[in-house]
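Query form — protein NIPSNAP domain-containing protein

QUESTION: What is the three-dimensional structure of this chain?
INPUT:
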Amino acid sequence: MITCVIEYRIDPDKVEAFEHYARMWLRMMPRFGGKPHGYFLPAEGANDIALFLFDFPSLAQYETYRAAMMQDEEVAEAHAHARASGCIIRHERSFFRPLLPSS
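ANSWER: The structure tokens for NIPSNAP domain-containing protein are given below.
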């Protein structure tokens, strides 16, 4: 399993627009085989950083998702919303392998 963490730099004056974008992705992600852990929005500290964490069974399955999403109309709508609203300034993707407690 891999966990993808996307760190967003967002416009703090457009958090509602970013939340709309995030809700779109939370609805779409399972359709592509990903397991979302949620978006994490600013609360204390920096007001322009948000995170999205989600899992895929493997990096190969993540790559399959990346190819499929490029052809999806709802994904295009989410990207268009982000561009039109200007809620996302930039984003960065990192991958992690979880170390979980033993049973």
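ADDITIONAL NOTE: The chain has a mean pLDDT of 94.
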